[in-house]
Amino acid sequence: MSQDDYDDELRWRLETLKVMFEDGKIKIAEHLAEGVEESLSKVRYGLDGKIDLSTVDGRIRSMALMAAHAAQRDQAKGAISLSDISGMYFEFVEKNLGFLTELAASSGLDAHQFARAATRHEDFVKDFSPQIPAFLEALKDFWSNVADSAHYHIQDLQGTKAVFGGDLFPSYQKNIVSTAGLYMDTIVLSDPFSQSRHIFEGAGVERQIYYLVKHILNVLNYKDLATADFPNPIVAFAPFRSSIDEGEGEFLKEVSTKDGLVHASHLFGRQFSDSDELWAYVDNLQTPASVVAALADPERLIFDTDWTGSLEEQITRSLDGDWNELIGGDPHAGKLVVGQSFGRMGQATDILLKSRYLSGIPLIDAPTSWKYFNWKLQYNSAISPEDNANLHMVQGLQRAATTDEEWLGKIPPEALIEMRKEGAFDEIRGVLSVGVDSLAQANPDNFFRSSDQIVDNIRDAFDKHIAEVKDLRKKKVRFAGHDLGSMMVAGAIDIASIATGFGSFGAASLAVNQLVDTPKLREIPERFRNLKNAHIELKKSPMGLLFAHKPGT
Predict the structure, then answer these.
(1) Phi then psi for 539, rounded to 5 degrees?
(2) Of 128, 223, 453, 501, which has the highest C-beta tally within 10 A?
(3) CA 128 to CA 205: how far, in whole Å?
(4) DSSP symbol at 242
(5) Distance between terminal CA atoms of the chain?
(6) CA 530 to CA 258: how far, in whole Å?
(7) Distance between CA 306 and CA 437 in Å, rounded?
(8) Tens-digit pLDDT profile for residues 417-433
(9) Spatial contact of 206 and 119, defined as CB atoms under 8 Å apart
């Protein structure tokens, strides 16, 4: 930015500050009022009618920066509502590939099986693979216009917000909102297409088609939940900043590299000063056997908590899977482990960044990701003694969420919407909201005493909730035609489906040109969109929730 542009920007901020003072939107603390008044009294206009910047001191410049940020938030929020963002997002996705949901339903295949089948359908691959870049570009344009608005709306939502992370998108085997939507006010999901850009840009055609189809089927499962009319939406979509902002992506890479080096030092029992040293160290660890022989803490090398077999066998399995295709067929075990370290730490850092930015709680439903998330907190808490509370808080929340009792964790979307409309079980959400907020503010010096009491309060609320559910079951209370008994789970749900048959794909073109425009946002001055947060904190007691359950009765 040139000096003239910087001066113009500063003058605009100062004018914004003036208007906000005149509108009574800025209040000054009594002990600061005299100093601020003195600084303001010195501000003068020059003969050219512009503010003379030499008369503006640092105090007023700082206030003007905050005023500009506040104005930008108000402009962005006023330009488009969160419900309109959800409606436009689903309109675009459905217009382009919504027909796949009917084909999948008629075929009897789940999202994974149907997406696999799509990769074997030559005509579909031929028709759609060339159009994926245009589809992604249209979504990129959409989010570049509305992401800030979505983020600000979500930041200002009152109540408990759970921000999903630990994977590209929730598992196709269960609807994460059916699991946790009764207990959280709002669950924030990321646009999986933006999250998967690295796959669409680096993987082979079949892999791209697989993720395109799978994401479509998964995303559209959340349409009714995201577009239901509530003051606090059940579901809100907003991309991770790292997937749409190059600067944020570089920041994430920098933090993830540091954590990845720490994780690798635990794996191999030695310190690495930088990534070059780590890559050089594993260069000779080409085989699974050589990697296993070099490990000092093999317990920290986890590919999937569900995998069985020796660690060598698991490394081989991973080399033969997605890793093989993404890196072009180089079966190098050492490089795989390094990639795993950086990738998993990046995943954990991303969810912490986003949840902190959106004032929410990380929500993870994958046990493997949960392991790495805990290690991430462990590594960060070692930076300074006052940060040690981070890991304890996560453990406290795990104790509150883990139970062998029956609870409502398999709620059909339509039933959940009806529960919200009728205000059913509001009390349990209220207790959770207060409890989680209390945990976030717990003093590390007396964490165990305070957090144990908070957790006990949440557990008591769950006990009362379960008793209420049991009573309603006896009365045969139903929601949207569904009996409560069919919604009960206890402790990780495992849904297996046997699929037979496969419907043929129709050849259709992506309707990229049907992406609904956002003219209001395009009217916002460019400077509003260019203002960025200069600092994102990671050390404010990050917490997480893991909802894991097994088949209910």
Answers:
(1) -105, 20
(2) 128
(3) 10
(4) G
(5) 64
(6) 28
(7) 33
(8) 998 888 888 877 777 66
(9) yes
